[in-house]
């Protein structure tokens, strides 16, 4: 059990020499190796935290500070994740648009929305979906089978979550076509996303059916599940990369910006920029 102030550093390039350098800077009483590319700096000089954080940034190393030490993984209750560019490697809507020869226009709106430059996510989604009118629905399957891959560490993280009885929640401003397939494939507990309308001839109409899953909806789904499971904010993890994930992330102590836009990195408690999604496993006692 690690109950004293601790720092965890991780990155593919992290080696023993760099770990020892960090431990010396932090005046850590103990350095615990976390595999080949991770280290726990335990019982540190808390006045050195900002120095280590800057050192990690300069050296392309992921940094996480735990003032009260580490919680037990088995005590966590909810792992909530965004889909596009978090659980998976792509923005699905951009890849659907690419098949229609409209990726540049759609991707520009996606980027602006994720950076927080377009405040009304629902309107930005409707604008992008409208550009998909007339695209054959077979394009969705093509994107799923040819373009969509899980981000590094995803399967390992989810496996460990399920083994610990942690409920896995996938909430996306993307589309149910993809979230439902990922739910079955990965054994996810609950998924929510938007439904694309398809006409009787098998083409996208350019419309979304029902209410749009926006930032507030994402937050509400997490809050509802947390209430159902009796989970405190300290028992929730929320991972995302775009500005529409921020409200959801406010409802989790472990708010994690995964290779995220600057606005998300600024507001999240933790960031992962170099390691895989499963880097968070090292933040907890096994």
Automatic annotation (TrEMBL):
InterPro entries: HAD-like_SerB (IPR050582), HAD-like_sf (IPR036412), HAD_sf (IPR023214), PSP (IPR004469). It catalyses: O-phospho-D-serine + H2O = D-serine + phosphate; O-phospho-L-serine + H2O = L-serine + phosphate. Its cofactor is Mg(2+). The keyword Transcription does not apply. The keyword Chloroplast does not apply. One of its GO terms (molecular function) is L-phosphoserine phosphatase activity. The active site is at residues 82, 84. One of its GO terms (biological process) is L-serine biosynthetic process. One of its GO terms (cellular component) is cytoplasm. Keywords: Amino-acid biosynthesis, Hydrolase, Magnesium, Metal-binding, Serine biosynthesis. Its EC number is 3.1.3.3. Pathway: Amino-acid biosynthesis; L-serine biosynthesis; L-serine from 3-phospho-D-glycerate: step 3/3. NCBIfam families: HAD-SF-IB, serB. Belongs to the HAD-like hydrolase superfamily. SerB family. This is Phosphoserine phosphatase. It comes from Pelistega indica.
């Amino acid at each position: 059990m690690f109950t004293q102030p601790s720092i965890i550093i991780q990155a593919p390039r992290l080696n023993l020499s760099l770990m020892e350098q960090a431990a010396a800077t932090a005046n850590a009483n103990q350095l615990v190796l976390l595999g080949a590319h991770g280290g726990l700096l335990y019982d540190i000089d808390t006045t050195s935290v900002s120095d280590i954080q800057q050192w990690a940034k300069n050296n392309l190393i992921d940094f996480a500070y735990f003032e009260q030490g580490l919680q037990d993984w088995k005590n966590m209750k909810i792992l909530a994740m965004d889909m596009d560019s978090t659980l998976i490697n792509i923005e699905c809507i951009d890849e659907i648009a690419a098949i229609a020869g409209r990726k540049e226009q759609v991707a520009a709106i996606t980027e602006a929305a994720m950076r927080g430059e377009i405040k009304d996510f629902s309107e930005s989604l409707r604008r992008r979906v409208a550009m998909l009118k007339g695209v054959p629905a077979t394009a969705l399957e093509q994107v799923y089978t040819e373009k969509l891959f899980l981000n590094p560490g995803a399967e390992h993280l989810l496996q460990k979550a399920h083994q610990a009885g942690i409920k896995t929640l996938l909430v996306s401003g993307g589309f149910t076509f993809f979230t439902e397939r990922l739910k079955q494939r990965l054994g996810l507990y609950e998924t929510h996303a938007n439904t694309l309308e398809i006409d009787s001839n098998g083409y996208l109409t350019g419309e979304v059916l029902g209410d749009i899953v926006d930032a507030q909806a994402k937050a509400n789904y997490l809050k509802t599940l947390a209430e159902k499971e009796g989970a405190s904010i300290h028992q929730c993890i929320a991972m995302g990369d775009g500005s529409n994930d921020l409200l959801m992330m406010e409802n989790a102590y472990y708010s994690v910006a995964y290779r995220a836009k600057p606005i998300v990195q600024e507001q999240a408690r933790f960031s992962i920029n170099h390691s895989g999604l499963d880097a968070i496993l090292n933040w907890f006692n096994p």
